[in-house]
Every structure is written in C-alpha cells, then in structure tokens.
Amino acid sequence: MSYPDTFRYTKEHEWVRVEGTQGTIGITDHAQQELGDIVFVDLPKVGAKIIKGQSFGSVESVKAVSDIYSPVSGEVSAINELLTKSPERLNEDPHGEAWLIQVKLSDPAEINGLMSAADYENYLGAA
Amino acid sequence: MLAAIGARSEEDLISYLPADVRFDRRLNIENGRSEYEIVDYFKQRAAQNANGYACFLGAGVYYHYRPVVVDAVVSRGEFLTSYTPYQAEISQGTLTSIFEFQTMVCQLTGMEVANASMYDGSSAVPEAAMMAVRITRRDKVLIARTVHPEYREVLRTYTTHQGIPVDELAYAKNGRLDLDNLRRQLDDNVAAVIIQTPNFFGLLEQVPEISNIAKSRGALLIVVFTEAVALGLIEPPREADIVAGELQSFAISPSYGGPYAGIIATHEKYIRQIPGRLVGETTDLNGRRAFCLTLATREQHIRREKATSNICTNQALLALMATVFMSLYGKQGLLELAEQNLAKAHYLANKLPLVFEGPFFNEFVVRTNGKSPEEINSGLLKQKIIGGLALDRFYPELKRSMLLCATEMNKREDMDTVAAAFPKQ
Predict the structure, then answer these.
(1) What is the pLDDT of residues B316-349, one digit of tens each?
(2) Which terminus of chain B, N or C, has less C-beta within 10 A?
(3) Closest by alpha carbon to B336, among B226, B232, B227, B228?
(4) Count of CB atoms within 10 A of residue B102's CB?
(5) Neighboring chain A residues of B137 at a CB cutoff of 8 Å
(6) What is the value of ipTM here, to two decimals?
(7) Chain A residue with minimal CA distance to B297?
(8) Nearest C-alpha of chain B: how many angstroms from A73?
C-alpha cells in the first residue's frame, strides 16, 4: 500500500490530512501491519480537546494495545462510527474508509513539523 | 535419624521459629493414646462448636439453605481440581457452565451481558465504577450511604490511587436515598451514581426515579445488590447501566467472610468495558453448538501496563455453586423462596418497632429502646439464637438500632423468641 502525498505522518505511525482548518487522523498501513488483527478501537468523544503528541485513544489487536498519539491539536468534530462495529476495517483500509477522528485544528501550522510521504517511507526504511 | 541429618534433637528442627509464634506448652492430650482415640477426642470437642443456632444476622451475608445437589456437582473432579482454562476452548464443560451462569445472571438482573463472575460483590462495585469512568470520561463517583459500608470502603481503596473522587449520598428520614439531595450533589463531572437495592437497611430503593435523575445529568446508574434472593421477587433493575452484586445467598456458605462470587452485568453497548472474561456461544467447524472465550481477560497478555481492571480471572467454582443453585430453583422456585423470606421477615417485623417506614425484603432496622443491641444479642445467644447487627458500628447516628434479617431458615418459635427479647414499646 502506498502512502498518499496529501497526508502528513508522525514517527508514531499516525497520519493527518488537512483541509483548511479541518484535519482527519488515522493510523498508517505500517501501523496496522505491525499490530495484526485489530479487534477494538477506543476513540475520544466529539467535543474532546486533543493535544499534539498526546494520546487520544487506543487500538487493540489480538497481540497488543497501542496508544494513538495526535499529530495535531484541536477539538474532535467527528469520530468514525464504522470502527465501533467493524474494527477490522482498520486492517483493510487504514488510509481511506477507516480514518479515526476528525479535528477542528487550533493551529494549522503544526503540520509543518510532520513528515511528508517520502520522508515517512525513508523513516520506515531506516527503522 | 536425627544424627543422619546432623541434628541433635527434635527441637533443633524447629529452633529457627521465632519464640513468639511458638506454642510454648505441650498439647493438652494424654500420653499414650491411639490415633483412633485422638480423632474421637477431637470429634467430641468439635461437637461443642456452635451448632444448632438460629441466625437472624444478615448485613451482606445471608443464612440460606444449601441444597445437597450443589456439593455433589461442584465436588466432581472436572470442576473441583481444574483451574480457569487458559486454553479455553478445550474445556467445553467449564465454558458451558460459565455460559449458563452468565445467561442466568442476565435473566436475574435484566441486563444484556454478564461476565464470567467477579471475586465478590464488594470488588465488583469499584470495577463497575471504573467502567463508568471509562465510558463517560468523567471522574467523580457518588455512592449512597445505604450501600453496604464495607463495599464503600473497598470502593475507596480502589479509587484513592486512581484519581477518582468519591462522594457519599445521604439517606432520607425513611432510610432510602434522599432524592432532593441527589439532585443537588449531581453535577456534570459525575460518572456514576451507585445505589444498593434492597439497601443496607433492607429497604427497596426507587430505581426508576433515581435512574431518571442520574441520566438527566449524563451520569450512569450502578445498582448493587447483596441479597440475590430478593431478585426472585422484585423488579430487575433494568434502568441500571451496570449491575454489580454478590451471589453468596445462592448456596455459597458464609465461611467467615469468603470466598464468594460477585457479578457484573451491563448493556451490550458497554461490552468492551467489562472487566474479566466473557464466554460466548458459537458453532464449531462441523456446525455444532460450541462455546468459546469471546472476551479473554486481556489485562495480563495484551493490555499489561494499560490494564483497565484488577481482575484477571473469575470465581469459577463458587460461581458454579450459584449456577447449580439457580438451575435447581428455577424462576418459580426462586420466586417462592423469595416469598418465604418476605413473609417471615414481615411476620417478625410486625412485632417490633421499626426505625424506617417503607418497603423492605428480608431485612429491617429495629429500635432497641431501653436496651442496647449488645444486651439483646447476648440474651439471645443464651437461647441459641444469633441476633442482628448493631448499626452504630457503621452509622454512629443510629444508636440503639439493630439490623435484623429473617430467611426461609428461621422458625416461627425462634422469631417469637427474638421479638420477646426486645423491650415492650
């Protein structure tokens, strides 16, 4: 699976797609592969404040539970209800249908510190 | 033999024990007795134990009949010697019994899912509170003072280091939760309101009303029970978000305070927040009915430092006792058992001055008037009757008040003796 150029990436394997002041956050294909079969996704409530670099939820697979760290700061405007019923979609389409949350960004400039798709692929290669 | 191991005397073998834990005189048994004579001697001493006493003490642990079938089933080696299965699906028999336990707990409580059991009622309460904190993402808990005092203490033990503030809710003059006060104490930080019904005073709480008040501020309602027999008769607490309780009444002997079996039951939407394990029904490769561990306790092998609960097992053997009890009585049998408890308690209560008015099941609070509860109890003990609980131990404001319990085990003549032990009004 390729890493879209329109996303920005973190070292903790999250991605964010920004349109204006709206950000959509997910975990990367690499993250879902490392986790294995995902059985539960714990997401914040709409309206919750999230802070760049801090955990806003967790993903539980049959072998581990991992925190999800936010690539940006802001207020949660939507959560992906699909994942409540079908967490396995996160294994199948992590960059598309299985996004995690949408956020109203408090500082859109924050994404400048994140990796591009090419940087992220280099980072994975080096890791 | 001593020389072979380098010891000079028998004393050498135990000389490392500190003096203050040593028994410092000889056993009071004559020398030169045979094994048979010594066993017989101890049998005679055992016969001097408190057998044949009538019991009117409840307060969280209840005196009920234990059908003989219970021990016949639970003493089978397949159950008695097997540990909670880690390779669960191999143990279809154990999984079947747990599945039946969960099903009956759901029927009893009006909930949709129940886990495979908790250690006991007291530890089920903080687990339910922590569930509510995770679900609501709020951190404060309100608990009624009419919840068992020891359950409240266990809750505080758990919550102190979890950063969960716990406030207590007063009871009204009638011994039930003060609803106006509840409305005042509720705010938008409250994750859960915890009540017990029948409450510690034996009174039924107004579950639907309390549920409405809690919901109006977005808090969950946790309903606790200590006397499971009551659920044979009263409405299941369907308005609850989580039910946490104790099944000691279902064929688990008092045993000086434990072990018992607790339950936690809730709605399906909260299934991921349930602590412990949960058994589900499925089909095997050949399409036959089978049972599986739908939710394993993930605290040890997956969640580890992210564990949300303190329970990694279940109380399998004691839960099985309760399962056998529930299968044996059935819905109708449990109803009749509950009716007997109700009738006997009300027979006794009618002869005594009650502190609280209001509907009660098999426990009630009596004013001891001129005498102290201790005086009454020591008088009863001489007549081979164990009296009730002096309430000022837990409720300093309730001086000269005794919590009495009557069950199907109590005979009319004993109840009359108890009634006569209280000063005339």
Answers:
(1) 899 999 999 999 999 999 999 999 999 999 999 9
(2) N
(3) B232
(4) 23
(5) 44-45, 48
(6) 0.74
(7) A62
(8) 19
Helix, strand or coil, per DSSP, at residue B341 = helix
Task: Take residue A53 and report the two structure tokens written for it.
Answer: 């670099």
Tell if the pTM clears 0.90, that is, is over it: no
For chain A, counts of helices (H) and of strands (E): 4, 9
Strand ranges, E, within B274-370 = 278-283, 289-295, 363-367
Q: In chain B, what is the straight-line distance between the N-terminal and C-terminal CA atoms, in Å?
A: 73
Chain B residue numbers with beta carbons less than 8 Å from the beta carbon of A61 are 302
Q: Which residues on neighbouring strands pair with residue A102, listed in sequence order?
A: A24, A78
User: What residues have CB less than 8 Å from B139, skipping those under 6 apart?
Assistant: B133, B163, B164, B165, B189, B191
Query: Domain B54-64+330-421 falls in which CATH fold?
Result: Aspartate Aminotransferase, domain 1 (3.90.1150)
Cβ density class B281-292: b for 16+ within 10 Å, e for less: eeeeeeeeebbb
**Cis preceding linkage at B259, omega within 30:** yes
Instruction: Check if A67 contacts B (Cβ < 8 Å).
Output: yes
> What is the pLDDT at residue B425?
63
**DSSP designation for B238:** T
Nearest CA in chain B to A64: B302
Neighbours of B408 (CB within 10 A): 17
Q: Where are the domains of chain A?
A: 8-126
Q: Does the pLDDT at position A127 exceed 70?
A: no
With beta carbons less than 8 A apart as the criterion, state whether B190 and B140 touch. Answer: yes
The hierarchical CATH code for the domain A8-126 is 2.40.50.100
Q: Is B147 exposed, middle or buried (0-12, 13-18, 19+ CB in 10 A)?
A: buried
Q: How far is CA B15 from the centre of its chain?
A: 43
Q: What is the DSSP letter of A10?
A: -
3-class state of residue B262 by DSSP = strand
Q: Domain spanning B68-325 has what CATH number?
A: 3.40.640.10
User: How many other C-beta atoms lie within 10 A of the C-beta of residue B137?
Assistant: 10
Q: Are B56 and B417 in contact (CB under 8 A)?
A: no
